[in-house]
Amino acid sequence: MAGIIDFNGVEFVNTFVSLFVALLLGTLIGAERQYRQRNAGLRTNALVALGASAFVDLGMRLMGNQGATQVLAYVASGVGFLGAGVILKEGMNIRGLNTAATVWCSAVTGAFAGADHPAEAALMCGFVLAGNTFLRPLVNLIERAPIDESRTESIFEMRVTTDEGSRDALRELLDERLEAAKYPAREIREMEREDGVEIVATLAATSVEAEELDAIAEELGRLTNVAHAAWSSRASD
């Protein structure tokens, strides 16, 4: 009964507009995710935007700008937990980071709408769509560019396979060759293999000249007691 008596038509229309704008813009963001068959698609992004808008609008109705500010902090942390649910780890690969970030941006879009800033909400929506659409060709271009080992920070390893009797001598020789080439080993470890012992030297350097490591591997590979010699790299943490 109190809700009927205290009904404010102007505030109701304001809330309706805020929720409608949030739902519409969240749907636009989610449509792009749905088209690309992501875990968090159209309905998820639309509901996240709608929920964020409703929380912020309710906070403003109850306590003004202070209430909206307090609610925003909880919305940001709450949506962070929601976004973590779409992040999947498959072996060494992690999927869903971009989708989780999009869900978070949908919440910000809804928060703008709930705070009675529809123009800013629309602007945020446009930037999210632009980031997910127009930056894709740039990402593909960067990923397809050839890697220059001398300009990247990676972990480099020199691997040499030998027999049990030659392990100590070859370990010393490997260390000497790397020192002479100005690529000192940060760590040298040994691993037992069916065909002998693999000596793995992890270099202290985070960038190398590929030709120099190729020369060392080729030199060691020509030794009679060496079954295999090669180097590899992987991205540093």
Automatic annotation (TrEMBL):
Q: How does it sit in the membrane?
A: Multi-pass membrane protein
One GO BP on record is: methylation
Question: Is Iron-sulfur one of the keywords UniProt gives this record?
Answer: no
Principal subcellular localization: membrane
Q: What UniProt keywords are attached to this protein's entry?
A: Cell inner membrane, Cell membrane, Membrane, Methyltransferase, Transferase, Transmembrane, Transmembrane helix
Q: Where in the cell is it found?
A: Cell inner membrane; Cell membrane
| Keyword check for Membrane | yes
Q: Record's superkingdom?
A: Bacteria
Extract the Pfam families matched here.
Answer: MgtC
Which is one GO molecular function term here? methyltransferase activity
InterPro entries tied to this protein: MgtC/SapB/SrpB/YhiD_fam, MgtC_SapB_SrpB_YhiD_N
Q: Where does the chain cross the membrane? A: 12-30, 42-59, 71-88
Domain named MgtC/SapB/SrpB/YhiD N-terminal: residues? 19-140
Q: Which family does it belong to?
A: Belongs to the MgtC/SapB family.
Q: What is this protein called?
A: Protein MgtC
What organism does the record attribute this protein to? Methylocystis iwaonis
